[in-house]
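Objective 1.3, modelling of assemblies. Example input:
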Amino acid sequence: MKFVVLTIFPEMFDPFWDHGIIRRAIDQKKIFASTLNIRDFAEDNHQVTDDRPYGGGSGMVMKPEPLSGAIRAANRKCPAAKTILLSPQGRVFDQAAANELAGFEGLVLVCGRYEGVDERISHNLIDDEISIGDYVLTGGELAAMVVIDAVTRQIPGTLGGEDAAEKDSFSNGLLEHAHYTRPQVFEGNAVPEILLSGHHEAIENWRLESAMLRTLLKRPDLLKSKSLSKQELDILKKWSQRIEEIIESYHRGHREHRE
Ligand code: 4HQ
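Predicted structure (tokens):
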């Protein structure tokens, strides 16, 4: 996978390329990272990249000429790449989008600043528009890093010793189960016994139940849109039954009180 980032702040990406799994993926040539400074494609002596909006108003707009020059240079570096604009108006990024983008040969990520880019750029030179969420950033750079990070870990071989991508949150539609490491008792709280038992099947069952309950309590919206296996359905039924028993015994208590 080839990532080409277009930005007026390329230095923001230096520490990003230099750490952790992204760094290792670059070293192992699983991904290729480069940045192009949009300012280098400005046509004037002062290398201006922004200008005042037609129609008036506050704020500045990214000029089209430096951006189109940068996008065309990026496309020459990687002709098969998909060109993505980071923008609050894009489709909202999620795990499915990360998986889809991981299938491309390259991604050109266009980072806007100010009020955004001239409409004729988004209209003619952009293949896809992505938002990382419904909030306003000061620029597309952090959004591009989020996309690059999530896409990179979907590329086979990038996670190494770490948990495989197929096993983690969202790939099965559930949040992850609880995790524990040493010590066995921390500030009076013990690790669940079953995890020390060495009984692998029981541990897998416990982890699925943990994942189901965490999803139910923290993100019930995820459970609603998920297709459930027999085992998953049985876990929900068991807990639903337990809750009903608690409610029934409460009502029984109140009836006795009235008699
Ligand atoms: N931006 N997801 C760049 C965002 C954003 C988002 C605001 C993008 C400012 C110039 N990008 N413009 N949310 O808030 O991707």
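Residues 86-88, 112-113, 116, 131-133, 135-137, 139-140, 143 surround 4HQ (CB under 6 Å).
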